[in-house]
Amino acid sequence: MTSGLRLALYEPEIAGNVGAVMRTCACLGTPLDLIEPMGFQWDDKRVARAAMDYFDHVSVTRHVDWDAFAGQATGRLVLLTTKGATPLHDFAFARGDVLLFGRESAGVPDAVHARADARVFIPMAPPLRSLNLSVSAAIVLAEALRQTGGWPG
Predict the structure, then answer these.
(1) Nearest-CA neighbor of 82 among 98, 111, 103?
(2) Phi and psi angles of residue 28, each rounded to the nearest 5 degrees, phi first
(3) pLDDT tens by residue, 3-49
(4) CA-CA distance, 19 to 16, in Å (whole number)?
(5) Which of 12, 14, 70, 111 has the least C-beta neighbours within 10 A?
(6) Residue 38 near residue 63, CB atoms below 8 Å
(7) Main-chain phi, psi angles of 92, to 5 degrees
(8) 127 backbone dihedrals φ, ψ, rounded to 5°
(9) How many Å apart are CA 151 and CA 29, to the nearest integer?
(10) Is the CB of residue 63 less than 8 Å from the CB of residue 69?
(11) Which residues fall within 8 angstroms of residue 68, CB to CB, at 6 or more apart?
(12) Positive or negative, the Cα torsion across 124, 30, 118, 9?
């Protein structure tokens, strides 16, 4: 059974983050889309180390670039960004949403912002502005699952 949501990483740069997100997606029954190019080789041992033995329990789809991903994406594209307009706790998630996270160092380009159906941010104590990618993904996925009744089990 899947959660009815998808999680997507735009050009991720850090192998350990991808592995941690893979593990989260495996445990929560959520498919993962990886939009290339990535900042590391797919066979990087750090991916496997962070994903541990959960690697075979997650559905991962790799896309050669943004256009390939956008061309097949269905459902609302919900961009998580420090430049978001809606705080996480005020956004209404729906089954079929794709939760999109940008590069660790630079987020996403303007064209990706323009394609998003919603731009959401995680509120945090000033002057801090961002969390680690894998932590952010877990927080947002948990809230989306809570709202949509998609928790496994």
Answers:
(1) 103
(2) -105, 10
(3) 899 999 999 999 999 999 999 999 999 999 999 999 988 875 777 77
(4) 5
(5) 111
(6) no
(7) -100, 105
(8) -95, 15
(9) 8
(10) yes
(11) 35
(12) positive
